Amino acid sequence: MKKLILTIAAAVTLGMFSAQAQSNVDLSKSKIEWEGKKVGGGHNGTVDLKSGTLNVSNGEITGGTFVIDMNSIVCLDIENADYNAKLVGHLKNDDFFSVDKFPTAELVITKVVKLKGNEKGLTHNIYGNLTIKGITHEVVFPAKIATDANGTLVATASFPVDRSKYDVKYGSTTFFPNLADKAISNDMNFKVTLVAR
């Protein structure tokens, strides 16, 4: 009887581990795009993931951790090399992301909730903690999560982040209310594509 109980316990334990898995994100196929807007214009570009893992249980994402390489910020819309380098340097300095002090940002997914009947094809709400410049706030955004016939998981999401919450002050009316036409939107928009197996 004791042997039977131990066998059942072992089977249950193995079943629990087999149902839960951690998948590494394919950094070469995953992508983070950013867009910042100001009065009369804006800029856009990319920033790279340094690492990423997704926690999967019974085919569903339950969590994950993603480290973003802030040194990899690129601007895509300025063709002039000197102006491009000036903007990227500006984004990396203390006016914006203080990359020397905070070389990475991090998103930790804490909860994933299925959506029902979303007309835009979005399938889940993602809850997580986003850390930029050492400051952490909860974020919530919708995403589309799908798995293809080869078992490759693709998650896409588009959402704004209020940079003023992370002490990114430059051009923000939150800190400088009299900027008028020199104001830069607090919201930075991100479009994220994650690919994992």
Assembly of the depicted chains? single chain
Named CATH topology = Lipocalin
| Contiguous runs where pLDDT drops below 50 for at least 5 residues | 2-18, 178-182
Count of distinct strands: 9
Q: What form results from the Cα inertia axes? A: globular
List the domain count as a whole number: 1
Using the CA coordinates, give the radius of gyration: 21 Å
What series of H and E elements makes up the topology?
A: HEEEEHEEEEE
Give me the number of helical elements.
2
Strand order of the largest sheet: 2-3-4-5-6-7-8-9
Would you state the CATH class? Mainly Beta
* Secondary structure: helix percent: 10-25%
Give a structural overview.
By secondary structure, this protein is an alpha+beta fold. The protein has one domain (20-196): Lipid/polyisoprenoid-binding, YceI-like (Lipocalin, Beta Barrel). It is 15% helix and 52% strand. It contains 2 helices and 9 strands, in the order αββββαβββββ. The chain has helices spanning 2-19, 81-92, and strands spanning 20-24, 31-38, 41-57, 60-75, 104-114, 124-132, 135-147, 153-162, 184-196. The protein has an 8-stranded antiparallel beta barrel with strand order 2-3-4-5-6-7-8-9. The chain starts with a helix and ends with a strand. The model is unreliable at 2-18 and 178-182 (pLDDT under 50).
